[in-house]
Amino acid sequence: MTTVYLNGQYVPKEQAMIPVEDRGFVFGDGIYEVVRIIKGRVFAWDAHAARLANGLAGLRISDAGAESATLKAVCERLVRDNGMTDGEATVYIQVSRGAAPRTHHFPPAGTPTTVYASASVFKPNFAMRDIGAKGITMPDIRWARCDLKTVNLLGPVLARQAAQEAGAYEALLHRDGMVTEGAATNAFMVVDGVLRTYPLSHYILPGITRALIVEIIREHSIRFEERPVSLTDLHRAEEIFVCGTTTDVQPIVELDGKKVGAGVPGAVTVRIKEAFAKKLYA
Asked: Of 13, 72, 123, 149, which one is the catalytic site residue?
């Protein structure tokens, strides 16, 4: 039996019921986070909690029931109750504006939020991270507040489906001729010997893994710029990798059917991947 958390209660997954008028279901009116668990330890919790709080503030959703200490304890209990403390797991957390009659404007003040969380066993694909993966490019059709981790994910869903149909792992998105990020990852590229990534803005998610990688880059004195990469430069990049909570550091060795660099993970990517693994499994 799988136990989940819903509005203050721990219940069997089959008994967790959300009203059909919940605004997360009707409008995609909510925020979510996915956190990584290593042997019962929540990785980078403070950063995830801060991003969740920022997202709730950005959508003007009350954080009642979604306080940092409460949700961290929820993550830890779900992992324990579901017998996942020995290996790796993820916990999905979602907070919506709650259930109310369908109107585009906000429901009355005091409408309770819906807070849901569930844990799943996670098995990293170490083999793919060692040999690299394929990628494709796609226009970035998402809304202009990609910095808010909302549950409205139709753009990434369509991009990931296109990648799957092309036999690729990820779709690298571009807006106005510049690469923004992956459908469900942040993206880094080595161009002319300099590692580059799109700067923080409304157009990309402030990834937790991205922030840790920037720390690693600075610790290792790697040549680095937070500067957009054009599509032209992307296709001549010496190295490309994407990153995320369940992606870690994933080299992209083929893009749109053509080799990236030598067609194997590059030296910069490998160096960062190994340094990140040390932080993750410390």
From this structure: 149
